[in-house]
Amino acid sequence: METKAHIEEHHVGYTTYVLVWLALMVLTGITVWVSYLHFGVFNIVVALLIASIKASLVALYFMHLKFEDKTTWIFVLYPIVLLALLIGLTAVDVFFRTTP
Amino acid sequence: MANHTVAETIHVPYLEEKGILSWILSTDHKRIGIMYLVSISTFFVLAGIAALLVRLELLSPGKTIVDAHTYNVLFTFHGSAMVFLFIVPGIAASFGNFLIPLMIGARDVAFPRLNLLSYWLYLLGTVIILFSLLKPADTGWTFYTPYSIQTGTDVILLTFGVFILGFSSILTGLNFIVTVHKLRAPGMTWHRLPLFIWSSYATAILQLLATPVLGITLLLLIAERVFGIGFFDPAKGGDPILFQNFFWFYSHPAVYIMIIPAMGVISEVIPVFARKPIFGYKAIAYSSLAIALISFLVWAHHMFVSGMSEVAATVFSFLTFLVAIPTAIKVFNWLATLYKGSIELRTPMLYALSFIFLFTIGGLTGVFLGTLAADVHLHDTYFVVAHMHYVMIGGTVMGFFAALHFWYPKMFGKMYNEAVAKVAWFLVFVGFNVTFFPQFILGMEGMPRRYADYPPQFHTLHEISTIGSWILGLGILIMALNLLRSLTNGEKAPDNPFNSLSLEWQIPSPPPHENFEKIPHVTDWTYGYGKKNNQEG
């Protein structure tokens, strides 16, 4: 498991890293551009979506998650589920409040 | 012993080396465990003294010993120190550090230096919190906005100290997870692991994944106080209830960070003193994980009267009931283990039985509070105070005392005076119930928590409660003196005084530095009591 990860790790060349970096820069540009557009309540959704793509790229390539075993993936995915719960259930509270 | 082929061990006890540097620079998991044990016990005593003062103030209506502000400071220190300095690191950091490598057949944790860093971060956090006492906070341990933003006391220093402690907790959790995954001895399969390891593993997951949310929340609070950004200020588009949502997203799982290790202790103590294999091994093991998972879904039951949405409150009330299921699974399995056992009432067993009895009361009253309609009546009354103490003292602290008396001979190589320990247990058990049971009634009758004063009709029950706190304090004092005296005057402990089958008892007391000369090869589980041929559950 460890050896497999290490072997594949070395297969990621500088080209991939540079491409990922470029993608991150483009996505940052898009984030700035999007901030001038108005999607109403979907502003947050769009911003979070772009941020999530960027974070995924960093985790997958720079942090080598793409080459890790199943256990590591479980430990990465579970907090994402928790984050979704934190945001989702807090949103249930905020959206369903009765205004006095 | 028959079920492990334990190799010869080297005979240099880990306590042999003297001098302060040999402790504070040690990466030996056993020494770090002892340093945590000493530190958390110190804060348990200090926070306990604050509690005795709180109870003394409440002995009679009107001012008894301190004014209202000092009273607020006292209960804030009591709560913050008990929660963040004693009970959250608690059993996990002290006994977890000492026992996890021993129980899984390893020489140390996966990252020994990171382990020492965790302890230093804990110390740094405590120093910062102690400095905050120069201008002590009066917010309670929950730091609720908007009061925590408006009060003139030093909330920033206190919360920053807690923020630092969070890192200690995260790193300890990470270390334990990796240790259990990577350093188990050959043959120590997941289903042969002692249940204390399962509970430590579940706790570590909670420490790793919930604590960052507390860190961020406290940073937001600090940013709010320093820069006035408005996260929690409705006048600036913020939301004070958002703080409560974030705070409890950590702090409810934190309740399980506090209690799950104690459950692990009980699962170790009961089979040894009932001389029976643990009943429902897998059910107990997986219920720890189930508690760890479900505990993330129930946080808002602390907020039913905060003004949160009724729809969300209904959902959270339902989800709260779910967490009672894995908890009850454990209790039923412990009872089934006791059934027809050859029960020996040694001190650790007395504390373990107290745990089952008191924790059941604490847990069931928690179900009352999770019920939306009942909570609206009982919220922020002494009923909550009583419930929480039945879980935290009746549960965690009883588990802590059980662990202390069970592993004391292994940790220090000395025996304590059993008769004195039993007297102390009796006083602790009686004192605890006299202190906290009347508080259920006070709460039902409407006595609000955190008030320095009360109307005369509550006098008798408050008086009984305060007298109970003296009995409880006396019991703990006798217990502490007994254990401290035994460090120097106690008889030498045998390697395995309680005839346990677990790995840590198969090596000398106190254990040598590297634990095992040769890593043991495990061929069976550790609960094969009362049977010739041990079998897996």
Please describe what this structure looks like.
The complex is a heterodimer of chains A (100) and B (537). Chain A has 100 residues and is mostly helical. Chain A has 4 helices and no strands. In chain A, helix 2 (14-34) runs antiparallel to helix 3. Chain A is flat and about 55 Å long. Chain B has a single domain (4-522), classed as Cytochrome C Oxidase, Chain A. Chain B is 66% helix and 1% strand. The two termini of chain B are 18 Å apart. Chain A binds chain B through residues 71, 75, 78-79, 82, 85-86, 89-90, 92-98, and chain B through 177, 181, 209, 213, 239, 241-242, 245-246, 249, 296-297, 300, 307-312, 315-316.
Helix content of chain B: 55-70%
Kindly report the name of the CATH homologous superfamily of chain B: Cytochrome c oxidase-like, subunit I domain
Beta-strand content bin of chain B: under 5%
Tell me the quaternary state.
heterodimer
- Give the % helix of chain A: over 70%
Give the CATH topology of chain B.
Cytochrome C Oxidase, Chain A
CATH A-level architecture of chain B: Up-down Bundle
**Class derived from helix and strand content of chain A:** mainly alpha
Q: Structural class of the helices, strands and pairings of chain B?
A: mainly alpha
Which CATH class of chain B is shown?
Mainly Alpha
Question: What can be said about the biggest beta sheet of chain A?
Answer: none
How would you describe the shape of chain B? globular
Termini of chain A, distance in Å? 58 Å
**Count of helical segments of chain A?**
4
Rg of chain A: 18 Å
Strand tally of chain B, please? 2
Order of helices and strands of chain A: HHHH
- Compute the number of structural domains of chain B: 1
Q: Helix count of chain B? A: 16
Mean pLDDT of chain B: 93
